[in-house]
């Protein structure tokens, strides 16, 4: 990373030394040291540049070797040795700059006009001494001056489209002001101010199916060893069913919307079956995932194979015809074409995954240079006749926001149009990926699909099938994580602020990526959603960063052994969880 | 800038003629189309890239991304579309053509823009030296002014914004003297467009003829 940033492969790394910054600045002419000063930084800018300093004489034991170096180098000009002085008064050299520093006038103020010395060395003209020795300390100031008419200010460079540009410093953080306000009106006083406790205002809401799922679990969950994942069957059935309905509703005679469940989101058999029962396809990123889908009951023609490593463990890949294979590179496309031609692979559709220009991604074929775009158009020519062509793109809307995603979709449609027109292949299947956050998916997904279908019908008239992958939106709310309070830490009298639970970042690896709804089981067996408060929920692991929730309001009657449930743990929390701290 | 055969032109300029006089009949730059897929691919790539880079911002956003793709520098003409998009360096004329193509593809009305801007002798001599090193024409330079190209974008209220594609900024209509000041402008509009001219700041730019912005 450093090599890339500095455009060099000859980096010189130094150990960090704690201390004060000072420097020695010299003026030399043809190998003769004319003058030198020591400057200690007394005030710094945000990037450690000198804002004020004091000027002193250079130690005599440093002057001699300095003069020798200047002589040996036959140095002419300025120079600055930047150093750190540590607590033991030891000087450590940082670097030698081959020029005068920006604060050089500060040395003149202190009686050492190093620039004039150099000019005098060259010309023999003696320097004026009007400013000499006014003060040993100097400071820099900001000064507004009128701009000369002959050198007007340049126009403002426009921020890159969608970037923050000049507006990025606003609104001001006003952190000190915020702290003062907080001190005057802490969270717990909000009750007195508004009559409503913040914890009540921020208490999460649950869908009817989640409430029903949790209530039906109340008895059985008491005997479960924790931490453990809890499947929410009503929620899963409702979400997958609603997704299927939305697809059916927004489909047209021309374009059939088909959801595909991304197996990697959570390969739990119950979720795969929910997807299968709702009429979803399965999207796999490896032959092992293809085998898993077939094992659960998907027909090979209901499976899409995707991703950059789709040939890993290829001995497990079915020889039956797949629904679609999307290629992650031009080389991958050539490999697939060869395999299809040789009869080693069979798929109804073969397509490409496009890398999203302007949005950083490691996946798909980049089209940000005309050369790669040309190569892609050329490779498409070799697709076997009789196999439909498709295009896939994927960028999680949860990473970029729904509006940005819609622009990305429109931009990808434009690329598809060009590919169709110039590559000579009609696109019959378009896979728009997924990565929807559950709330975004719930709100307006039918309207969004209708809008998307309208654009496709208008711009890509040969598309017959639109694939969407809402795995995260459906799986995430369909499982929860049950955990027990191990200890309420009482370091100080008053309300506790730290509570240790038996779950950890190993079971909730996404705990810091998005808020999880948390519930506490009250003594009467009812689940109470927890709002905002002052408690941190600490994981069981001896890891500093094992903090699975912050700013949680825990009921006063909560005690060790009580059950908590983290909702929204059925997506990547489950599939990316790992074994840690189990002694094996 | 088409006349790449004109090299080592003198930088001197006459004092008694309008500042745009050396370029009175000078055509704005255009790229040549082979009439086949190579150039169609180039244009399609440019338009799709521009839309992707727009990133959900207003379609009136300048295509500043072009400067991350192409450095400003000498170009040799004639230049084909399929060549232009693959270059590392493009001059103001070629960058202006690409910018116009981007604006037009977004559905905006955009005209070719010719400018005369004031600079100083140090700047013009430096550029002359650089262009001469590349054996490219210096016809665009005089002692204290330079000929420049860009894109004039028509806004909803029928006023113009002038995009300097070589710098990635909108030209300031209030800066008409001094270093970088706009001294003269010519926009090229198709037949049948406004005969009254188009407002640019407090100026009115007549169509298809040079408008003197400042005489200082």
Descriptive report:
- The complex is a heterodimer of chains A (584) and B (216).
- Chain A is built from 19 helices and 22 strands.
- Chain A is 31% helix and 23% strand.
- Chain B is of the alpha+beta class and 216 residues long.
- Chain B is built from five helices and ten strands.
- A six-stranded antiparallel beta sheet of chain B has the order 6-5-4-3-7-10, with helices on one face. A two-stranded parallel sheet of chain B has the order 1-2. Chain B has a two-stranded antiparallel sheet with strand order 8-9.
- Chain B is globular.
- Chain B starts with 36 loop residues before the first helix and ends with a strand.
- The chains are: A alpha/beta (584), B alpha+beta (216).
Offer a concise description of the structure.
The complex is a heterodimer of chains A (584) and B (216). Chain A is built from 19 helices and 22 strands.
* Overall mean confidence score, pLDDT of chain B: 91
* Rg calculated over all Cα atoms of chain B: 17 Å
The share of residues in extended strands of chain B comes to 15-25%
**Estimated helix fraction of chain B:** 10-25%
């Amino acid at each position: 990373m450093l090599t890339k940033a500095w455009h060099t492969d000859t980096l010189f790394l130094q150990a960090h030394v704690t201390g004060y910054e000072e420097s020695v600045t010299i003026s030399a002419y043809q190998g003769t040291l004319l003058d030198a000063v020591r400057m200690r930084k007394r005030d710094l800018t945000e990037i450690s540049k000198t804002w004020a300093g004091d000027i002193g004489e250079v130690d005599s034991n440093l002057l001699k070797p300095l003069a020798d170096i200047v002589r040996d180098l036959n140095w002419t000009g300025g120079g600055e040795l930047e150093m750190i002085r540590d607590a033991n008064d030891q000087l450590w050299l940082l670097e030698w700059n081959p020029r005068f520093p920006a604060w050089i006038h500060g040395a003149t103020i202190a009686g050492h006009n190093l620039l004039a010395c150099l000019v005098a060395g060259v010309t023999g003209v003696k320097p004026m001494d009007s400013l000499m020795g006014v003060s040993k300390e100097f400071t820099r100031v900001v000064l507004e001056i009128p701009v000369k008419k002959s050198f007007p200010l340049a126009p403002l460079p426009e921020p890159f489209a969608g970037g923050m540009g000049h507006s990025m410093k606003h609104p001001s953080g006003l952190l000190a002001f915020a702290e003062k306000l907080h001190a005057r009106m802490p969270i717990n006083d909000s009750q007195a101010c508004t009559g409503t406790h913040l914890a009540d205002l921020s208490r999460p809401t649950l869908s009817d199916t989640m409430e029903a799922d949790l209530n039906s679990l109340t008895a059985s969950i008491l005997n479960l060893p924790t931490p453990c994942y809890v499947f929410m069957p009503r929620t899963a059935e409702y979400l997958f069913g609603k997704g299927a309905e939305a697809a059916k509703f927004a489909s047209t005679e021309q374009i059939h919307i088909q959801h595909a469940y991304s197996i990697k989101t959570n390969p739990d058999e119950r979720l795969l079956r929910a997807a299968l029962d709702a009429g979803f396809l399965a999207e796999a990123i490896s032959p092992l995932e293809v085998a898993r889908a077939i094992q659960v009951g998907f027909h090979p023609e209901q499976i899409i194979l995707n991703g950059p490593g789709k040939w890993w463990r290829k001995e497990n890949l079915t020889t039956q015809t797949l629904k679609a294979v999307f290629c992650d590179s031009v080389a991958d496309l050539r490999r697939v074409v060869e395999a299809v031609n040789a009869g080693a692979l069979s798929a109804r559709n073969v397509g490409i995954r496009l890398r999203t220009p302007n949005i950083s991604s490691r996946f798909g074929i980049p089209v940000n240079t005309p050369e790669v775009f040309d190569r892609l158009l050329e490779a498409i020519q070799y697709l076997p006749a009789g196999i439909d062509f498709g295009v896939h793109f994927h960028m999680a809307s949860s990473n970029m926001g729904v509006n940005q995603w819609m622009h990305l979709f429109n931009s990808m449609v434009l690329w598809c149009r060009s590919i169709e027109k110039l590559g000579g292949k009609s696109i019959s299947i378009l896979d728009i990926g997924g990565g929807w956050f559950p709330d975004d998916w719930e709100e307006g997904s039918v309207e969004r699909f209708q809008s998307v279908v309208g654009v496709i019908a208008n711009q890509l008239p040969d598309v017959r099938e639109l694939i969407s992958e809402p795995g995260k939106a459906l799986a995430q709310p369909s499982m929860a994580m049950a955990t027990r309070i191990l200890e309420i830490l009482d370091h100080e009298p008053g309300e506790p602020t730290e509570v240790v639970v038996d779950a950890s970042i190993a079971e909730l690896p996404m705990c810091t990526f998005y808020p999880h709804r948390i519930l506490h089981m009250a003594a009467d067996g009812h689940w109470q959603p927890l709002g905002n408060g002052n408690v941190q929920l600490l994981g069981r692991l001896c890891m500093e960063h094992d903090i699975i929730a912050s700013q949680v309001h825990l009921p006063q009657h909560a005690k060790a052994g009580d059950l908590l449930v983290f909702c929204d743990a059925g997506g990547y929390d489950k599939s990316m969880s790992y074994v840690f701290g189990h002694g094996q | 800038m088409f006349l790449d055969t004109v090299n080592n032109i003198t930088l001197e300029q006459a004092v008694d003629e309008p500042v745009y006089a050396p370029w009175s009949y000078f055509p704005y730059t255009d790229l040549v189309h082979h009439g086949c897929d190579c150039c169609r691919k180039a244009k399609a790539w440019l338009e799709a890239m521009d839309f992707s880079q727009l990133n959900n911002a207003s379609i009136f956003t300048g295509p500043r991304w072009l400067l991350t793709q192409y450095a400003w520098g000498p170009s040799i003409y004639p230049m084909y579309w399929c060549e232009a998009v693959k270059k590392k360096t493009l001059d103001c004329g070629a960058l202006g053509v690409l910018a116009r193509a981007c604006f037009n593809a977004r559905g905006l009305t955009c005209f070719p823009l010719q400018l005369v801007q004031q600079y100083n002798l140090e700047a013009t001599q430096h550029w002359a030296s650089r262009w001469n090193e590349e054996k490219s024409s210096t016809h665009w330079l005089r002692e204290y002014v330079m000929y420049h190209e860009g894109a004039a974008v028509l806004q909803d209220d029928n006023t113009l914004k002038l995009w300097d594609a070589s710098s990635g900024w909108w030209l300031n209509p209030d800066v008409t003297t001094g270093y970088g000041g706009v001294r003269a402008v010519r926009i090229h509009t198709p037949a049948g467009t406004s005969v009254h001219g188009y407002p640019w700041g407090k100026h009115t730019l007549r169509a298809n003829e040079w408008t003197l912005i400042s005489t200082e």
